[in-house]
Amino acid sequence: MAEVLQAKDADEWAYRGEGAVNLVLSYCGSSPKFVGKVLRIQKVSNKVSKYENGHSALTKDERFLWGQFEGLVAARTREIAEQLYVQKVMCPLLGSEHVDAGIRILVSREFLKAVENKVLLQRPTLRVDAAKVNPLCDSVLVIADHSIFPSVRGILKEDFCLSVEIKPKGGFLPTSDFIDEENAVKKRITRFKMHQALKLHDGVISQISKYDPLDLFSGSKDGVQNAIKCLFLTPQNNFRVFLNGSLIFGGMDGAAECVSYTVDQAFQDGIKRVIVAKDGMHSKYFLELVTETVMKSGLLNQLLEVQKLDSIDIEGAIHAYYDFVSLPCMVCRKKGENKLSGRYSSIHSMSKDAKLKLVRNYLISATGKDLSMMISFRPRKSKDVESPHRSVLLKEINQTFDYKASFIDLDMKPLKKMEYYYELDQQIVSCYVQMVKDDEAIQNGAVGIDGSLNSYIAKWK
């Protein structure tokens, strides 16, 4: 980590996108050291003080929570701790062949300022209003650009590479006995579907997605195919397509819900460079290619096991959290429950180690529910019989593709977010239940709890 990126180096990095925590830049220069790489630069909320800018290391409780993972708790900054979290916690769970923990390189404050100014006009307004590049960072994370196929020497091949980024979201329904009866809908309706109602209500989206994570995780080709089709029809920020690392379909931040002609044309032109088919059939075979590869890769089986580490739902885990951090249980207090004799007494009477495990597993599961999969394809040439990459065959067009599949955005969740997760969960369920009641009232009781969202959509548009 000897090299330090300076202000002039910002010219060689281009805006790729961002999440709530990090800004992502792709390399557009010629240095073999960085070809095929992306930078992840930590952001900081515009609303917090300098002391809270995320530069400090783990809290005392977090050090105890992650204490069994060598090196993680000794990290001098949170950014280093988060990299070690990916390396020590997520890699063993998801497979090191699918996860790149990356390396950290030093940066100057001038570099960070130059990046901030360069990408400002490219960032979605909501993201700009919420956060900025953290000026206190002294290093950034360099990881592989999973949307391209670099050669061994670090020089990009001239082949066209098509990549799809998918946010799978939670792939199972909770069965926890700690879920309140008034929230029993959680056991029948996916969190993703319920959250769509809240996002529509709040104006975050303008159209409800038909995507159902249960289809994607179903293990059946029909289910996976339907999930991919629904993601394609309403991508929001859950489905994006790249050609040689450049976005050709989907929004930078979920804002592009109705794909414009320009982007649509770019997508059509892009997939024609990779998929050999008759005119009008490229999109069909692209979706089939994604479906076949998702099935063959086995990524979702590993991911589902990680997500299921959340064994008692947030409505149970929140009680373990309050005891773990030695605070009064605000949920029990609000519900008028006695910690030691009430409904949640079995959790409150657990050993501290058992509570630690529940909380830790919940936070690991939260990473699994919030990550993305990146699957990249390129046509396999007949002479590439010794390609190191796995392949998938589309029988209908007799075309074989190299592919690689990876997990990205494996952010460590702060322990203090447990309360936020609980409050958001209650808000999501409440909004969805109210939406169904409104829908039933409008349709004179003709629609049940699993029914149509049409009237609700009409109401809020």
What does this structure look like?
There is one protein chain. The chain is α+β, with helices and mostly antiparallel strands and 461 residues long. It contains 16 helices and 13 strands. The strands form two sheets. Strands 1, 2, 3, 4, 5, 6 and 7 form a seven-stranded mixed beta sheet that branches. The protein has a six-stranded antiparallel beta sheet with strand order 10-9-8-11-13-12. Mean pLDDT is 88; it is low at 51-55, 152-156 and 254-262.
Q: SS-based structural class?
A: alpha+beta
Specify the oligomeric state: single chain
In N-to-C order, the SSE pattern is EEEEHHEHHEEEHHHEEHHHHHHHEEEHH
Using only CA atoms, what is the Rg? 23 Å
Task: Please report which band the strand proportion falls in: under 5%, 5-15%, 15-25%, 25-35%, 35-45% or over 45%.
Answer: 15-25%
Q: What is the number of strand segments?
A: 13
Terminal Cα separation, in Å? 51 Å
Give a short synopsis of this structure.
This protein has 461 residues and is an alpha+beta fold. 39% of the residues lie in helices and 16% in strands.
